[in-house]
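User: What would this chain look like folded?
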Amino acid sequence: MNLFEDIKRKNGTIESFESFCGGLPAPQFTNNPLRYKFTWFPRGVLLNALAEAKYLKDGKVVNIESGQLTKQAVPFEVLPGFNLECYPNRDSTIYKEAYGIESAHTILRGTLRYKGYSSAMDTLLQLGLFKLKKMNLSGYTWGDLTKHMLGDRTMSNEDCKKKLMGLFEGDRMRVQTVTKLGLLDDSPIPAGIDTPMDALVDKLASSLMMPANETDVIIMNHSVGVRLPSGKREMHRSNLVVYGEENGWSAMSKTVGLPVGIAAEMMMNGEIKERGLVLPFSRAIYEPMIAKLAMEGIVERREVECDELD
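Assistant: Here's the prediction, encoded as structure tokens.
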């Protein structure tokens, strides 16, 4: 909102708004096929991969059907020092009115992940491991379940790998996703689990939760396309990168917890006078919050790129 107001004060017209954010392991801790680790229960992350999405592109609404999100990822080039990809997240069109940017013809909010995440998630999806239909998994190992999803629980591991190569059209990285995640192992699926999704949640929760001695990073970018009164175009970018502390606060804890704590303090001090469900869209709320966050080391970096073709 602060960036929007700065642009409007200069009589700029907002033509596009794209916003991406991701909570990720720090780059040195991405040694797994998902390039990701969980700081909360994995089920929510997996269900998000099944979600629908909607955004505005050049004045047209684009709808992404359930189960297709993992195929939408494209490289994210704004912060080239990170090897990132991005994809849409939920319904972006509601922010046209919420943010007061009715002039924008493109509005997209999305998720950031390290490159390779979406391919790995799509691999698990194609294997049928996101299915919620109940199965009798009593006595199953992980290898049994993977082979069952491929049509033959009794096949050998070598035959299974050949079938995976066929399913994924010779893509060895996808086959390695299956093997490196332990989906052909003899480890038993715990008693009481009766769906492929719940089995996968348990597997990821036991193998890819972020340990206390590793750190995370929050990466956020807002890119706002602007037309100036002169007719010139500019791209205004706001970038935020926050690292977690080793054996201290995670980046997720800081970026989620500090704004809530600051808002509570502002209410107790009478700086926020509104009551009820209040969104931080007014300058009286967000400007002091941004200043207080800066005192905690959470600071955006801005840059402006001019369109040299204009």
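The mean pLDDT is 94. If you want, I can go into more detail on any region.
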